[in-house]
């Protein structure tokens, strides 16, 4: 097995994912870091907040922008436990985030290679550095969440 | 010239676009209607709110979901003065909105045919009825906004 090192920021994103799970939400967590500081954090809240836009990344990015007083998050890094969907990927690109660290792949909706390519999303000129952690824990968290959901139906 | 009829809901979306313009924001406006009632409205607020997600559609959808107490806006219609971007189109599809009425085309970022096709966005099974108004006023509003912006630089 390949050895992977998770830094403290990613572990905080994982912590957010567990918070989502504890609320019966899709277990995805995210933090936004700038100059070594976590300036935004979030976990999926679509059900609890009755808000279809309340994905972990949207919440973390909104908080980060509020903290900086601007929507431009240039120089920031986003850590997220699951490959972001098109909505979130599009927002990440709009917000000028420079680097994205992703835990697990999301084959159905992921826009960092699975169903779309982040480099092709507007604005096209802007490139984002992407790091894949292949975090099995975050992937397993999703699998068990949806298994539990199906068993309830 | 082809005669087009704008209903009151679309005129409210236009009113929202003018509100955005009055705040020096990108002039896009949106309302969400269900059972004949406007349950959400919004205009672009990215600069004023320091929030990269604060597009007219996101604000209107969040408000509508709050009003209904659920993220599922099944049976709702969204009226917007400009072709939604990928972020907003993805949110529209997630939120189960059934119909979208669009004013003007957005050739650089529009996800209802310009740079992406709404029918291909996940969830793919779900189809959305789309009505194009070809509203020259809303298109002109955008053109003059960006012209003014460029002249300031």
UniProtKB/TrEMBL annotation, chains A, B:
<feature type="domain" description="CMP/dCMP-type deaminase">
    <location>
        <begin position="4"/>
        <end position="115"/>
    </location>
</feature>
<dbReference type="InterPro" id="IPR016192">
    <property type="entry name" value="APOBEC/CMP_deaminase_Zn-bd"/>
</dbReference>
<feature type="binding site">
    <location>
        <position position="85"/>
    </location>
    <ligand>
        <name>Zn(2+)</name>
    </ligand>
</feature>
<comment type="subunit">
    <text>Homodimer.</text>
</comment>
<dbReference type="Pfam" id="PF00383">
    <property type="entry name" value="dCMP_cyt_deam_1"/>
</dbReference>
<feature type="binding site">
    <location>
        <position position="88"/>
    </location>
    <ligand>
        <name>Zn(2+)</name>
    </ligand>
</feature>
<keyword id="KW-0862">Zinc</keyword>
<dbReference type="InterPro" id="IPR002125">
    <property type="entry name" value="CMP_dCMP_dom"/>
</dbReference>
<dbReference type="InterPro" id="IPR016193">
    <property type="entry name" value="Cytidine_deaminase-like"/>
</dbReference>
<keyword id="KW-0819">tRNA processing</keyword>
<comment type="function">
    <text>Catalyzes the deamination of adenosine to inosine at the wobble position 34 of tRNA(Arg2).</text>
</comment>
<dbReference type="InterPro" id="IPR028883">
    <property type="entry name" value="tRNA_aden_deaminase"/>
</dbReference>
<feature type="binding site">
    <location>
        <position position="55"/>
    </location>
    <ligand>
        <name>Zn(2+)</name>
    </ligand>
</feature>
<dbReference type="GO" id="GO:0002100">
    <property type="term" value="P:tRNA wobble adenosine to inosine editing"/>
</dbReference>
<protein>
    <recommendedName>
        <fullName>tRNA-specific adenosine deaminase</fullName>
        <ecNumber>3.5.4.33</ecNumber>
    </recommendedName>
</protein>
<keyword id="KW-0479">Metal-binding</keyword>
<dbReference type="GO" id="GO:0052717">
    <property type="term" value="F:tRNA-specific adenosine-34 deaminase activity"/>
</dbReference>
<feature type="active site" description="Proton donor">
    <location>
        <position position="57"/>
    </location>
</feature>
<dbReference type="GO" id="GO:0008270">
    <property type="term" value="F:zinc ion binding"/>
</dbReference>
<comment type="similarity">
    <text>Belongs to the cytidine and deoxycytidylate deaminase family. ADAT2 subfamily.</text>
</comment>
<keyword id="KW-0378">Hydrolase</keyword>
């Amino acid at each position: 097995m390949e050895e992977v090192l998770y830094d403290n920021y990613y572990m905080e994103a994982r912590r957010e994912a567990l918070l989502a799970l504890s609320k019966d939400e899709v277990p995805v967590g995210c933090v936004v870091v700038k100059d070594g500081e976590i300036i935004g954090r979030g976990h999926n809240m679509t059900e609890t907040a009755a808000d279809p836009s309340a994905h972990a990344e949207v919440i973390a990015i909104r908080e980060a922008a509020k903290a900086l007083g601007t929507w431009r998050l240039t120089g920031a890094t986003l850590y997220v436990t699951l490959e972001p969907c098109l909505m979130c990927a599009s927002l990440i690109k709009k917000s000028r985030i420079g680097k994205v660290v992703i835990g697990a792949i999301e084959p159905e909706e992921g826009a960092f290679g699975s169903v779309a390519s982040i480099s092709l999303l507007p604005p096209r000129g802007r490139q984002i550095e992407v790091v894949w952690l292949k975090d099995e824990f975050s992937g397993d968290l999703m699998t068990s969440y949806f298994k539990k959901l199906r068993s309830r139906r």
